[in-house]
Amino acid sequence: MIEMPEAYTLARQMNETLSGKVFQSYTQGELRHKFLWLSGPVEESSATLAGKTISGASSYGRSIYLRVGAEHLLWFGDIGGRLLYHPAAGPLPKKYHLRWDFSDGTCLSFTLQMWGFVLLLDKATFSDRPAKEVGIPPLSAEFTFPRFNELLEAYPEKTSKGVKGFLVTAQHMNGIGNSYAQDILFRARLSPRRKIPEITPAEREQLYQAVQETVSLAIQVGGREEECDLFGHAGGYRRLMSSQTVGEPCSVCGTTIEKMAYLGGACYYCPQCQK
User: Fold this and answer.
1) Is the pTM of the predicted complex or chain greater than 0.90?
2) What letter does residue 93 receive in the DSSP assignment?
């Protein structure tokens, strides 16, 4: 699943590469996926898009918005897959779910691997972003430490679930998933199981800084190395805590990195550094 750094990277590249292109068609490939949600029949969306010009692209948390003139928006959300740009006469993936062709012979393909949605919205349902978007993305102007502290206090499950649950809940922070949450908690020296009322003011400041640092570092290198950008190039961010580092010595204290099951998924952490 892409998270904020990958969405930011893809949106920047889409803005630079696709702006000014004119839609020719929007089609489905031979593949079908029960966890790919669309706004309606692709044929209807294709008829709406045909002849219209892309006016730009942007991101919000884990979402990507492709603006079509002043009237429409293609919303790519919760993407567990690959968006790829293909030059004119360039090869296409052997299998893909969706494809957008442009008048200059180039195209964009989307291959879903987990789940996600692609919705075509008209201007009546959005302003700068769809009204259904929630949560504050890290690095945004709204994401100040006082606001972060308010979000921590407002977390409804703060006494029953650990801080990891807060980090990956999009209603609070939009853009962080399981992958970056592991490194954020390591940099903040917090156990995934720590309850929010137990976190001291100083530790809250550390957590806030860890969010900013981790997301900034990942954006600088185009996202995680297991994800690809618009041109199929892998990102440059190597995770500190992952299935690839479990069993290895912690880079700070040398203690063996461990794995535990928590909140329906795997957590990787240093039992010495993270308390």
Assistant:
1) yes
2) P
